[in-house]
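Thread: Modeling a multi-component assembly for a lab meeting

Hi all, long-time lurker, first post. My supervisor asked me to bring a structural picture of a complex we are working on to next week's group meeting, and I have zero experience with this. I have the sequence lines for every component (508 residues in total). Could someone generate the structure of the whole assembly? Inputs are pasted exactly as I received them:
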Amino acid sequence: MVLSGGDAAFRVSVDVVALTVLDDRLSVLVSRRAEPPYRGRWGLPGCDLVHDEDLEATARRALRERTGRATSSARIEQLATYGAPRRDPRRRTVSVAWLAVLPVLAEPGGGRAWKPADRLLASGRLAFDHGRLLADGVERARAKLEYSNIATAFLEPEFTIAALRGIYEVVWGHRLDAGNFHRKVTRTDGFVEPTGRRRQTGRGRPAELFRAGAEESLHPPLTRRSFEQRSVDLGSPVRRHPARGAGHGLVRGA
Amino acid sequence: MVLSGGDAAFRVSVDVVALTVLDDRLSVLVSRRAEPPYRGRWGLPGCDLVHDEDLEATARRALRERTGRATSSARIEQLATYGAPRRDPRRRTVSVAWLAVLPVLAEPGGGRAWKPADRLLASGRLAFDHGRLLADGVERARAKLEYSNIATAFLEPEFTIAALRGIYEVVWGHRLDAGNFHRKVTRTDGFVEPTGRRRQTGRGRPAELFRAGAEESLHPPLTRRSFEQRSVDLGSPVRRHPARGAGHGLVRGA
DNA sequence: ACAAAAGTGTTGAGCGTACACCCATGG
DNA sequence: CCATGGGTGTACGCTCAACACTTTTGT
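Re: Modeling a multi-component assembly
Sure thing. I ran the full set together rather than chain by chain. Output:
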C-alpha cells in the first residue's frame, strides 16, 4: 500500500444481490432503469459510497431504500468486488457487491420487483455486469446452504422443518427426502432449536415450530453433491404442491 | 447503482496476501515500511489502482513488483474488500484484497521477507488493518484445502504425494496419516495425475511424481473437521522431520 | 374412513480412520 | 543387514440414502 505520487480517484459503489423465495422460486430484487445507460433493463439495488460510511452500512442503506423496510434482520455478507475498466460506460466505477438473504416482504412497488433469478439470468436483460453479480450471488447462496444455516434467513423467525426443506428444494432445484432431512436438521448441533409450539398447516399432522440455532456453520454439512449427478430441470420451479387438477404425485428421491 | 449528483471519489488500492510454505511454516510476503504511517511495521504488498487496469492485473503487478519475479504461475483469487472510513489515516481508501499462493521463491531482499503467518499475527506488528487481511487470507487458504486443489499451488509443477501432504500438515497444523492421504488424493478424480517419473529422495523408496489435475474442486472433499476436535499446537511448526539430535519420533494420528 | 403431511425405524452401501504390512532404496 | 520413507490391504464404525411405517390432523 504505497501512496502514489498522483491522486487517482475512483467512484466506489455498492450493489446488493437481495434474494428471497417467492412462490417457490428463488427471486432477486431488481428495479427497472428509467435513465440511460441501460434504460429499460433491470438493475440491482445499489448506491454510491459516501464519506464516513462503512461498506456494510452502505449496502444496508441500498437495501433499505429499495425495500422501504427496516432490513436489520436481513442476513448480509460481502460477495466480491467488480472493477473492470469499462463496466460502467460513464465513469470508472469499482463496485463492492453484497449478498442479502431475507424472508418474503411485501411487493416493493415503484418499478421495483422480485423476479425469478433463473429467468432474469436467462433473459440477459440485466444492466451493467449485474448478470455476473447475480450469478455469483446465486452460486454463493447455493453453496452456503451446504455448510451454514443461511437457509433460515429466508424464513420468518419461527418456521417448520418442512418450510426449511422448501428453501433447500427451491434453491438447489431438486426435492429432498422429508424424513432424512428432518433427522439431519434436528440432529445437527446448533442448526435449529425447538420452540415447543406447533403450527396448523391445514391438512396433515401439525408441524413443530423451530427457530434458528446459534451455530452459523454446520458440521457435518448437508450435501447437494450426491444430487447434482442427477438431471436437474432448471427451467421450471420445483413445485412443492401438486398442480391443481393435475393429480400426478411427484416422485421422491431418484 | 444510481449516479449521485456529486462526484465523491476514493482512493482504491489492492493488497495481496501472498502465501507460501517455507521451512515447514506457512509464510506470508511482507515488507517493512520505511515511511509513516506505521513506519517500521510490516505491510502486505499492494499498490494503487490505476486508470484502465483490471483489479486482478493490479494485484499481479503488486506481487511482481515485490517478488521481482514473473508471477503468472501464482494462483490468485479475490479475498474481500476492506473500506472502513479510517483504515488509512491519510485518506479514505478502499482496498481490494487478494490471496496468492505460490511455491517457495528466492528470498526477495530489500526489506521484504517471508515471515511465518502465525507469528506475524501474534506479534500484532502489521500496518493498517493488514492483520485482519492476513487472518482472513489464512483462513481462506485453510478452508480451500478441503474442497479445492489449491494445495498444489504451493508446490512446483511436479511434486510427490508426501510433499502435498506436507502442505496440508503445515497449513492445517496437524499431521495426517500418510497411507490414507495417499489413497484419498490419488483416488479423487482430477486432483493429481501421475507423470510416470520418480524422485530420489535420499532415504526410503523413491516416490512417484505427480502434477496437478484438471479439476479445481474436490469431490468428496478432504476434511479437517475431524481433526479440529483434537488439540492443535499453534505455537510451533508441525515438524515434518524429527529435530536433529532429539530422537523422539512423532506419533501418528491421535 | 381416507388423504395428507409430520416424524421415526430400519437396513444396506460407501467412506474414513486406524493400523498392519509389504516395497524400494541408502547407509 | 537395518532404517527410512512410499505405498497397499483390511477391518471396524459411522453416516447417509432409501423407504417402510406410525402419528396426527382435515375433509
